[in-house]
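# step 3/5: fold
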Amino acid sequence: MAEPNFPPLPEFIPLKPCFYQDFDEIPEQHRSMCKKMYHLWMLNSVTLAVNLVGCFAWMFGGGGVTNFGLALIWLLMFTPCSYVCWFRPIYKAFKSDSSFNYMLFFFVFMAQVGISIIQSIGIPGWGVCGWLATISFFSYNILIALIMLIPTIMFTAVASLSFLALTKIHNFYRGSEASMTKAQEEWTTGAWKNPHVQAAAQQAAMGAAAGAMQDQYSSPQYNDNQM
């Protein structure tokens, strides 16, 4: 197994890379699209960082500390989560033509597209410098509103590019041999053989059975005002 090389970290940081990433292992017909998805992930991460700066300026203009705090959470949480939850699945799907990873990617990335649209809209109090928040702030401070306009345009670009990428990959998926049945077969023959997955599934089943038995034999309780 290849040694993990991503993310590339400086030597003075006492952490090691968690993933192996090499676009040369992606089949040539998918390599270009895979790189574009990686660049989209990078653009999304940079946009969240620029949004943090915009919310910082917004806070000094009277926008409140809540938006800055939420912007920080967006950056710290969604940067690694987006890499793990939708880029890695599509990377694996392109690499091994895995239907299961295609399904996982579509499920998560559709949520990503929805989130990007909400971020570009810019609902006040959500920690994003979208169109609603930016346009409304022009009447208070033009300079800060112009700073907020930069992440607003970037969020719009991310939402648009994400929708186009989802459409393109979905069209390719429909024209390939991948299917839900194949994804189920991969799960049955692959992940289900993992002993950790089996143990977790057994524990979940036992817990559900115990809960059902408890509900069946327990008598209902009522408040006095319900009698």
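# step 4/5: annotate
The two ends are 66 Å apart (CA to CA).
# step 5/5: archive (pending)
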